[in-house]
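Budget justification aside, the reviewers requested a transparent look at the raw inputs and outputs of the sequence design task funded under Objective 1. We therefore reproduce one unedited record. The lines immediately below are the structure tokens for a 86-residue chain.
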């Protein structure tokens, strides 16, 4: 093997190594992006769960308040009519 063949092999080796480094860097960046997207999606889903829970609690509180208001109105009507119905 002569010197020019060795130089060509050396250049090919470094070119191949450079391409491998580029692929590794590309894959690393792509993986980081996927991880970021998964974390964002997890935060969104967690936020939705919290919002649904708060909505359900508010709904229950509103129903309880409406029941209480209806009971008060019924008591007023019964008292107004002089009924002693419990």
């Amino acid at each position: 093997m002569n010197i020019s063949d060795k130089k060509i092999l050396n250049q090919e080796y470094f070119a191949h190594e450079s391409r491998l480094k580029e692929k590794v860097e590309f894959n690393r960046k792509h993986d980081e992006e996927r991880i970021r997207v998964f974390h964002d999606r997890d935060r969104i889903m967690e936020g939705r769960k919290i919002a649904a829970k708060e909505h359900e609690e508010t709904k229950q509180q509103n129903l309880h308040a409406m029941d209480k208001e209806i009971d008060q109105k019924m008591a007023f009507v019964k008292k107004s009519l002089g009924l002693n119905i419990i």
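Helices lie at 3-81. The first helix runs from residue 3 to 81. Computational costs for records of this kind are itemized in the attached budget.
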